[in-house]
Specification:
Shape: globular
Number of domains: 1
Number of helices: 3
Strand content: 35-45%
CATH class: Mainly Beta
Strand order of the largest sheet: 7-8-9-10-11-1-2-3-4-5-6-12
CATH superfamily: Lipoprotein localisation LolA/LolB/LppX
Number of strands: 12
Mean pLDDT: 82
Oligomer: single chain
Largest sheet: 12 strands, mixed
CATH architecture: Clam
Length: 222
């Protein structure tokens, strides 16, 4: 009997590609509901989370890109530490939200219950909600890098947010959020280097206004 000729490297790659395609064809399609449930499961068991972020804003005749580190801790605590611009901070301590950029004449403060800031949808990362119940007309479409886009209308923010889209991996990890407000402005967040269960020092979510800078209660700046 004549021995079979060994496959060349190119033939091995071609065979692997055919096998991968066959497996994908046999795999059940993932629905928006199933992917949303994976997001819920991924974040609901977390108590803390640390991730790097990049934030871009386009609207009101301006375009801006900021970056820094986002820290989250249950229940309801969130801190955005900006590297660019340096020293800018948005902190949610569970009772109040604080907004301050070095050089500002005042510190903005608003009750957490009345917070309607565009960063509010990041509560999805706190695992306090079910995406399918929070977002109307939830749809899912493919996104680059093997990810998916979950999109729809946040049910409790119709007066401010027209559309929200979450970029999600197949495992349910959120890598980006795009938020379009009712005025047409677009804010995008990209997240990298996620650290679930990160050790966060005590006092991280406490904000003390700089000496001599007054605190003003009111809506947050854009």
């Amino acid at each position: 009997m004549r021995a079979l000729a060994p496959l060349r490297p190119g033939g091995l790659l071609l065979a692997a590609a055919f096998i991968a395609q066959a497996l994908l064809a046999q795999a059940p399609a993932l629905s928006a509901k199933q992917l949303a449930a994976r997001v819920d499961r991924h974040y609901n068991h977390l108590r803390t989370l640390q991730t790097a972020f990049t934030e871009t804003y386009q609207g009101m005749g301006m375009e801006r890109t900021d970056s820094g580190t986002l820290l989250l801790e249950k229940p309801g605590r969130m801190k955005w530490e900006y590297d660019s611009p340096p020293g800018k901070i948005f902190l949610l301590d569970g009772k109040y939200a604080w907004f301050y950029t070095p050089g500002d004449a005042q510190v903005e403060r608003i009750s957490a219950r009345h917070l309607n800031d565009l960063r509010s949808p990041l509560r999805y990362l706190l695992g306090h909600t079910e995406l399918e119940k929070e977002i109307s007309n939830l749809t899912m479409t493919p996104a680059p890098g093997g990810c998916f886009t979950l999109a729809g209308q946040p049910k409790d923010a119709q007066n401010r947010i027209a559309h929200v889209a979450l970029i999600v991996t197949a495992r349910g990890v959120i890598t980006g959020i795009s938020i379009k407000d009712t005025g047409g402005a677009l804010t995008r967040f990209t997240f990298t280097h996620e650290q679930p269960g990160a050790a966060i020092p005590a006092g991280t979510f406490h904000f003390t206004p700089p000496p001599g800078v007054p605190v003003v209660n009111g809506p947050p700046p854009v």
